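Sample 3 of the quickstart, ligand zinc ion:
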Amino acid sequence: MAENIAEGEKEKAFDHIFNTNLNHRSWDGENVRDTCLIYIVDKGEPKILSNEEGKHAEINLKEELLKDDMDMAVQRNIQVYINNSPCRACADELIVFLDMEKNSKVHMEIYAASLYNIKRKSCIDNGEPHVNSMDEKESEKESDSNAEGLRKLMEHPNCEMRVFKEKAWDDLMHILEIHQEDFNERYETTSEGNDRSRRNEDERLKEDLKDISQKKIISWHEYFMGVAFLSAKRSKDPNRQVGACIINDERRIVATGYNGFVELDSGSDNDAYFPWTKPDKHRYVCHAEMNAVVNRHGTSLKGCTVYVTLFPCNECTKLLIQSGIKEVIYYADDKAAKEEFKASWEMLELKGVKLREYKDLDGKYQGRRINLKFDDFAK
Ligand code: ZN
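Result:
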């Protein structure tokens, strides 16, 4: 069992949480690299834990909680006030704890004072990033992974993630017997010369948590490339399913297409008439870009952008250029070395059509899995 809060410790803990939230600084003025949490089980005595001996505070929390012999039949309420957001590994560990059969009645409320772990990149103090050892890409990957961990934790039925906000600050002050005057004084001193205020931080944190919990949000690029890939799924080409999605300058989808045979019977896939074998199929197939262009229902494609799952061939490139497409965003380019594809590069460049590879413009989301299990949407 953890020691109850020692004399002077609560002041420190409060300062730590308070200062971290405002300034990302610990009480000794150093950039914060540690986590401090205060937890209470069933309105009992508050206890302070921090990251020690290479173990994160949340892991120490889990171990302390496991030491408690919890009665299965009794609902246990655990409140956690923490100056940081759980990292991926900690979130997973807490989920393991919450999932344990004997803890099925545990309810955990986590009040986070900052999303430091998730936003490491943005935690820059005096021009010095907190995570010096990581390169930007690594740091982004880690921050995505941490966000994913937190999201899973937030989705857990036995866990609630909350922003400090007024009530939590009041509760914490009360728990730690800090007086309002002291608090106001700290607030004045720590926010001096700093354009952030506690209230703004709380509001921003609230928005961030909302954003994280709404995992359904995908980026614009993911959306349009996703529609292109989804369209490709309609293709019966056994060799390669290709999709295209054309959007206008107001980010509205104006047409989609996938590779399929020329239409003989309206609304049919016309597989009966032509072979899918190479090279014969080439004489009868309409590429995704062509189908998208002709499916535009009379809308002008001037100034539009096309998302294609595969770099366009020369025939489609001609069509795209003639239609007034100003930008091509492609996913795969594994055919780019072929002669006719070289012609595509050449024409697009000469015409001044902006050509971008998907992975260069949506790096943050690269490789992210987008699940489309319809049942999930019904929840
Ligand atoms: Zn083509």
